């Protein structure tokens, strides 16, 4: 009889709210025995390393005294800037404070939150982007062209990176033979992106 292959799921949703801000969440529920001592801070550090690796260092997360910047290689230009991480109750939150990919008048909105929540019998590992106002969308009432451009570029890249990150984490913790599948969930209302 072949060995049992663990089956893990990554739940995923990405939507644009009525105010044209973006909400994106991905999570996986891990058995307590697999999650071990994983923390939100460790999840954040792993994610920053993964972004650099999976983009072939084209995007370099840089940790500064005043926060974190995702910089384009060869430039000092920040694609997206965050305040220093805030830590509370199993979460590490990076609040957006600027960057080229953010609408200039919306730089004080949005956050990227990393979570490791201990639930009954499981540990939920999550990444959530909320209230993000991408420059590509342009305003609170983006044109159809801008919406589709965002969907085909930034939204697709964000989903790919977060799902791959969680898939890699699942396989690191459960073993390389683990089967990981993505399932769409409905957490928040909005226009799917």
Keywords:
single chain; 193 residues; alpha+beta; 11-stranded mixed sheet; 26% helix
Structure notes:
The structure is a single chain. A hairpin with a 5-residue loop joins β1 and β2. The protein is an alpha+beta fold and 193 residues long. The model has no long low-confidence stretch (mean pLDDT 93). Strands 1, 2, 3, 4, 5, 6, 7, 8, 9, 10 and 11 form an 11-stranded mixed β-sheet that branches. It has helices at 32-35, 40-54, 144-174; strands at residues 7-16, 22-31, 59-64, 67-72, 78-82, 86-88, 91-98, 111-119, 122-132, 179-184, 191-192. The longest helix is centred in the last third of the chain and has 31 residues, at 144-174. Helix content is 26%, strand content 39%. The protein is globular.
Q: Secondary-structure map with pairings?
A:
Blueprint: E1 7-16, E2 22-31, H1 32-35, H2 40-54, E3 59-64, E4 67-72, E5 78-82, E6 86-88, E7 91-98, E8 111-119, E9 122-132, H3 144-174, E10 179-184, E11 191-192
Parallel strand pairs: 1-10
Antiparallel strand pairs: 1-2, 1-11, 2-9, 3-4, 4-5, 5-7, 6-7, 7-8, 8-9
